Amino acid sequence: MTRFDAVLLGLVVASSVMLVQTKHEARLLYLAQENQNRRSMRLDVEWRQLQIERATLVTQDRVQRLAQEKLGLAPPRPEQIIPWER
């Protein structure tokens, strides 16, 4: 085997090792991307559920019922209303 053949063989082996390493890194990056996509979907579902819960908690009927039950508030009687004029 000549020196040129040995150098050429070394370059082929080095190239093969780099190819395997690059493919491995690409697979790892793909798996990381898939994990992030799944996490993003879970967070999106959770966000939608929180939005629905928030909309339920701040309805006018619920706020008024809680104000009456927990705080003892009631709508003002007509004699308690004082019109404000500019």
UniProtKB/TrEMBL annotation:
The UniProt record lists the keyword Lyase: no
Membrane topology value: Single-pass type II membrane protein
Pfam families named in the record: FtsL
Stored InterPro entries: Cell_div_FtsL
Cell inner membrane recorded as keyword: yes
Main location: membrane
Keywords: Cell cycle, Cell division, Cell inner membrane, Cell membrane, Membrane, Transmembrane, Transmembrane helix
A single GO BP: cell division
Compartmental location: Cell inner membrane; Cell membrane
Domain of life: Bacteria
Function: Essential cell division protein.
Family, per entry: Belongs to the FtsL family.
Protein name, per record: Cell division protein FtsL
Gene: ftsL
